[in-house]
Structures are given as C-alpha cells and as structure tokens.
Amino acid sequence: MRMPIIAGNWKMNTTATEAAELVKAMKKKLNSISGVEKVLCPPFISLTTVKDLIKGTSIKLGAQNMYYERSGAYTGEISPAMLSGLCEIVVLGHSERRAHFGDTDQIVNRKVQAALAMQLTPIICVGESLEQNEAGETIEVVTRQVKAAFQGIDSPQETVIAYEPIWAIGTGKAARGDQANALSGVIRSVVAQLYGNSIAQEMRIQYGGSVTAANTSEFISQPEIDGALVGGASLKAAEFIGIVEQTSKIKQVG
Ligand code: 13P
Asked: Domains of the chain, with CATH numbers?
C-alpha cells in the first residue's frame, strides 16, 4: 500500500510573514492527521521560517525548484546543496517553470539527477497542454516527459510523479477522476518499462490541477492516484486541511 502524499505548492505567493501565518493556521490540525504524508512548499525565502515552525510535527518541507549545479557563478539560483538539510522534497519540472523559465526535458533531467544525488526527493511534474490534449497527444507527451526526466538514472529512489494537465492548473476546471486515473496508469506503466513492475508499484503518483476539498475524493478514490499537488487551495488553511482529511479517510477505508 502506497502512503498517500498531499503537497501544497504555494507558488510565488506569501511574504515570509504571511507564510508564517499560514503555517500557524494549519500546522496543529495537519499534524494530527495520520496516514498521509503532508508537504508544504513555500517560496525559497520562507523555507527556514516554515522549517522552524513545523519542527517536531509530521509535516514535511519542500522547495518549488532548484538549479542542478552544486555551486558557482549562477546569480539568483539555489543549489541542491543549499536545499539539502533544509528540506526533504523538491518540485521539479513544474509546467510554469517549463513555460516561463525555459525548463526543458533535458534540464528537468539534470535537476532530477542532482536532487537524487543530494538525497532530495523530487516531485517530477508532467502534463499536457490544452492544445496537445485536443490533438490527442496526451499519452505521447506525458510518456516523453517521464522517460526524459529519468534518462540515465539507475534508481528513481523515492521519486514522486505529479500528473498535472496544464489546462487544469489554476482554471477551476479539474480533470475528471477517471481521466487522471488513466493517465496515472500510463505513467506507472512507463515507470515499469524503465525500472520494472515492483518499483512502478511503489512509486507514488499525484494528480494536480484545480484540486479543492470539494473534489478531492474524485481523485483520491482512484486506485492509481496516490495524492495531490495542490496550488491555489493550499493557500487557504481550512481548504488544505480539508484535502488532507479527505485523503486520510478515503485511503484508510479503501
Ligand atoms: P492549482 O491547484 O491552483 O490548479 O495549481 C495546481 C498546481 O500547479 C500545483 O503544482
């Protein structure tokens, strides 16, 4: 049985003060919910603040991105070595990074390699655009992204994959549970091709795109979906707690 994982990707939201307020508003309740891995991914500048606030709880910390070089003349970048020891998880290849900051499949691959080398757990984001979806290219695109992300990697260790159809992100138009489940199944079969069935069965696959407390059950009740990568709803304490609570209930009963 795979441990469900709910991660809140705060994106470029919250000042350090607001980040602290948000954590304070949800940490006690989140900590009390069992059977779900809970991850907060604030902006870089709030990682230390959030780390201090969640100390002694079951809540984990993640970053939203990183560069792949260990150190050097890369003004404005954050290295895997800087994140190591600060957080356990790092979101890589988010579609917003791919769209606005030039993260190609090759760059995502280098970042995944660098994260694993530093014992950081990557959440690798994949997903098709509306155009690709309408052209019937979803499986092809997602398969390519997953294979590219793992290029040259012998063991994916604890890597998590997030299936986030771009057309569902921030639009309020989530995918249907059965669609997301089918794509998660495709992703798992690609992982099985690369690493064998037992690693594929252990790998956790999240759905992301307009997840709310109200639609969580649609995704979490699917057999191939092991959690969610939550954007907008992770900025509201009650909403994020609701998503984690639902997940705990559904996966424990199921
Ligand atoms: P929303 O939940 O705001 O649609 O964002 C999803 C996402 O991109 C999480 O990484």
From this structure: 5-251 (3.20.20.70)
